[in-house]
Amino acid sequence: TELRVAPINGQGLLGDVKTVAGGVAESIFQPEWSPDGVLHFVSDRSGWWNLWRLEEGEAVQLTNREAEFGKPQWVFGSGTYSFASEDVVACSYVSDGAWSIGMLDIKSKNLFPVQTPFSEMGRGDIKAGDGNIVFLAGASDRPMTVVSLDLASGRWEELRKSHNLEVDAAYLSQARPVEFPTEDGKTAHALFYPPKNGDYQGPTGEKPPLLVKSHGGPTGSASSALDLGIQYWTSRGFGVLDVNYGGSTGYGREYRERLNGTWGIVDVDDCCNAALHLVAQGEADGDRLAIDGGSAGGYTTLAALTFKDVFKAGASYYGVSDLEALAKETHKFESRYLDGLVGPYPERQDLYQERAPIRHTQGLSCPLILFQGLEDQIVPPNQAEMMFDAVRNKGIPTAYIPFEGEQHGFRRAENIKGALEAELYFYSRVFGFDLAEPVEQVDIENLSAE
Q1: Shortest CA distance to 4 belongs to which of 31, 24, 42?
Q2: DSSP letters of 85-97?
Q3: Which residues contact 13 (CB under 8 A, 6 or more apart)?
Q4: Counting beta carbons within 10 angstroms of the beta carbon of residue 248, is it exposed (0 to 12), middle (13 to 18) or buried (19 or more)?
Q5: Containing H/E element for 235?
Q6: CA–CA separation, 190 vs 169, rounded Å?
Q7: Which residues have C-beta within 8 Å of that of residue 73, sequence separation ≥ 6?
Q8: What whole-number distance in Å separates Cα of residue 125 and Cα of residue 136?
Q9: Which of 15, 105, 401, 421 is an S-S bond match for 7, by CB 3.0 to 4.6 Å?
Q10: Alpha helix stretches (DSSP H) within 45-92
């Protein structure tokens, strides 16, 4: 990214354009003028997205932390800082997967933490004005909520929750950060949710099944806000491990760049090693490991099931099975995204074919269920349909559930609920356990062969 500045003349035209920050090895986020006309921006030239400002033509660093004051720019208008005054900036930042809020004194460059019960801020959006800051935040026991905080008193108020469903704490599993060893002597990160249900305990001496989740993006990150989809699994006896594989945001530039040219390798290795780490720690049953993910996370799921032998079952939600088809057919916004994640296409067509699960189904030997929106224009339905046909023809237990009217990500409540129940039913048949509640049965091909 390059940050450029130019004067505007009386005719509304730009004068001499000057590059003031950025380059091939630098990412710039949220350039913004302060109330007194000084240009501020977030840059990762230090290895972490920190806050800078331009003084007499020179970039001056205002924060120097191993923390991220920026996020991937998937949407317009996102901002992790806002001016409370000429000298004070309200900031949001993420460190070790947890979000915080701080007030930055520009003159002294001191950042003063603001105590809140929140650990997740999504895009980190924050706005300041009239002695208050307003932000969107959540936690393992709190849904994403619009929050107002009075700077003078430190009191905060919930203005609007994303939902008002109250869940007894006896059924809520709290996220626990996990750092685990992975390839090449490195470590990676995840959030672990152990099974929890106030009415039941697992059988003595029996390890719980584990569901590993691979987030989308793929250059996104796992959220620690209350996710009823995750709690659905933990309240039914599953442990859930939400993996921030190499390439995820929130852990610095070097960590983000681990996925450059290695999508389908680093993410897969990290998801596998995360699961094996919990098995080694005695917190999961190695014979009942499952993985699921949507979109890019669906690709990681399919690749893990195809190229590795760690998981015993999996579920792909509108996942990519053919990288080459994705490069040719995806929408304009992401049309060159894969150049950095895999390699330039068509020059490196060999990599796209080498890492495409649909081209290597001979390596897949465990049950798979696929969910797909039939109006998806990002990952078209034929990706799931090809994978389903290939797995079915191999005689492996499989199911395909298409949803009419759904696009890239399910939005209708009945379909979200139906997909969760179908995935649970699928695992119950594959792993051989009884369900505590009736759910609609799913037509599973080749199940009798097991």
Answers
A1: 31
A2: SSSEEEEEEEETT
A3: none
A4: buried
A5: none
A6: 22
A7: 29
A8: 6
A9: 15
A10: none
What sign does the dihedral 220-226-227-233 (CA atoms) show? Answer: positive
Distance, CA of 238 to CA of 261 (rounded, Å): 33
- Among the listed residues 363, 220, 233, 221, the one whose alpha carbon sits nearest the alpha carbon of residue 304: 363
Side chain identity at residue 225, one-letter code: A
CA–CA gap between residue 429 and residue 409 (Å, rounded): 26
pLDDT at 396: 95
Distance CA 313, CA 368 (A): 6
The answer to whether the CB of 266 falls within 8 A of the CB of 204 is no
Structure tokens at 298: 């669906």
Instruction: Give the CATH class of 169-449.
Output: alpha beta
**Helices in 261-336 by DSSP H: which ranges?**
266-280, 296-307, 323-329
Q: How far is Cα 239 from Cα 282, in angstroms, rounded to an integer?
A: 12
Fold of 2-161: Neuraminidase (2.120.10)
**Whole-model pTM?**
0.93
Domain limits, the chain: 2-161, 169-449
